[in-house]
Amino acid sequence: MRDLASMDRDDRLQLMRFVCTFAWADLETQRDELTLIRKLMKALELEDARGQIEAWLDRPPAPEDVDPASVPRADRELLLDLARAVFDADGEVTPEEREQFRLLEKLLR
């Protein structure tokens, strides 16, 4: 698994695209999920992409823009960890979130 510091900007932005999609798994974004995503945006040094990320929080990225097959193998465990974090952020994992995680895990492994 690659660490965040070794990722280029495009790869970090791709992770954020997925993370924003995870927040929409139950068809609504929760305050705790949004807080986590905004902290992650800072940690990933993507404040310059705030407009794009906020747009993904207002409306999820298009399905064709979040193809798990496009995630480099070195980043897949990190992506699963981030998905878990978003799904757990509000303290309640919905059936939709569980199903999306199960599917993502299957596609990535």
Q: Briefly, what is this?
A:
The chain is mainly α. It has helices at residues 9-23, 31-43, 50-58, 76-88, 95-108. The longest helix has 15 residues, at 9-23.
What can you tell me about this protein's structure?
- It is a single chain.
- The model has no long low-confidence stretch (mean pLDDT 92).
- It is globular and about 35 Å long.
- The protein contains five helices and no strands.
- The two termini are 13 Å apart.
- The chain is an all-alpha fold and 109 residues long.
- It has helices at 9-23, 31-43, 50-58, 76-88, 95-108.
- Helix 1 (9-23) runs antiparallel to helix 2 (31-43).
Sheet/helix structural class = mainly alpha
Oligomer: single chain
Distance between the termini: 13 Å
Query: Could you spell the SSE succession in H and E letters?
Result: HHHHH
Let me know the number of strands.
Answer: 0
Number of helical segments with 4 or more residues: 5
Low-confidence stretches: none
Overall pLDDT level: 92
The biggest beta sheet is recorded as: none
| Principal-axis shape | globular
Helix content: 55-70%
The fraction of residues in strands falls at: under 5%
The gyration radius over C-alpha positions equals 13 Å
